[in-house]
Every structure is written in structure tokens, then in C-alpha cells.
Design a protein that fits this description.
The chain has 171 residues and is α/β, with parallel strands linked by helices. The protein has 5 helices and 7 strands, in the order ααβααββαββββ.
Length: 171
């Protein structure tokens, strides 16, 4: 057999089937995603839900402290004040130099930009989802406003009067 014959024999023709790995990769990725979802759900269900409030998940071991329980109640009052566009109540829930961030916009309690932000529109549709995650003086949860869902990370004072220091809402 000549070199030309050997080369043409080893060449792939147009009718030679080619294995496409993409469907297999998609199936593996889907299976891994499903397994992670099931594992997370099982861990959440069997893990750190508090006996008093199944809508709260404690990150770490132990039970919610009294202050952490107060943070949950505080959040419910905070959301209600947003629904009512009650600027005075909302401002009273913050430290003087508190900061609220949402979708790249930063407003401050001290300069009045937070009050302007609250007055900017109606917040009647604002609602919170459970469960909420609590770790130390941090609370993480989700809320919906006008059909859009936001993730909230809120830092509270760790001692003294319970007040918000920073609230970041992202989509």
C-alpha cells in the first residue's frame, strides 16, 4: 500500500459519523444541578431550621439568640414601613450614617437621599419570602416588589439598640 493510499484510508469521510459530546455534557450538568438542589433542600429541611420559627435558618450551630429573633421581628416591621412609605419610621430604624444600596444606587440616611428614595414611588407590593438566613448580626433573605425578586443582605448593630447599619438589595 502506498503512502497516498494509507493517508486516504485514514482520512475521515463526510459520511463517517462524528460523536457529539454536547448532549452528554448537558445531561451530566443537569444531573449535577439536580443533585445539588436535592442536597441543599435536604440539608435545609434537616439542618438548622429553628423550632420556634420554621421561616428562619440559622447559619452555624445552636439556637437563635434573643437579638437575632428581634432582627426577624424588626425585618417584618421594616417591610411594613416600606409598604406604607413611612419615611419617619424607616429612618428611625437606622443608625445615623446608615447606607441603603439597590441596583447600583447608594442612598444615605444622613443626607436625606434615603427619604427621597422611599418617597420616589409606591412600595405597597413589597413582600418578604421565607426562609431567612441569620448569622451573627447579618440577615439574608428575599423580597418581591412589583413582580421583581431581590436578595437582601442586612447588617444590624451587634449591641445596644437594634438598628440597621447597611442594607443591600440586589437582583
Amino acid at each position: 500500500m502506498t503512502k497516498l493510499e494509507m493517508a486516504s484510508r485514514n482520512m475521515q469521510t463526510d459520511d463517517t459519523p462524528v460523536a457529539d459530546a454536547r448532549p452528554r455534557q448537558r445531561l451530566v450538568a443537569l444531573a449535577v444541578g439536580f443533585a445539588l438542589l436535592l442536597g441543599g433542600l435536604a440539608g435545609w429541611t434537616l439542618g438548622n431550621t429553628t423550632s420556634e420559627n420554621p421561616g428562619v435558618v440559622l447559619a452555624g450551630e445552636g439556637e437563635l439568640t434573643e437579638r437575632q429573633e428581634a432582627m426577624i421581628d424588626f425585618l417584618r416591621d421594616y417591610i411594613e414601613a416600606w409598604r406604607q412609605s413611612d419615611v419617619e419610621t424607616l429612618e428611625s430604624m437606622w443608625v445615623t450614617d446608615g447606607v441603603f444600596e439597590s441596583l447600583g444606587r447608594t442612598v444615605r440616611i444622613s443626607d436625606g437621599s434615603f427619604a427621597d428614595y422611599v418617597r420616589f414611588r409606591s412600595w405597597e407590593s413589597k413582600g418578604i419570602f421565607e426562609p431567612m438566613l441569620v448569622k451573627g448580626s447579618l440577615l439574608v433573605g428575599f423580597h418581591e416588589t412589583d413582580g421583581s425578586t431581590f436578595m437582601n443582605t442586612m447588617r444590624f448593630t451587634s449591641h445596644g439598640e437594634l438598628l440597621l447599619i447597611r442594607h443591600v438589595a440586589t437582583r
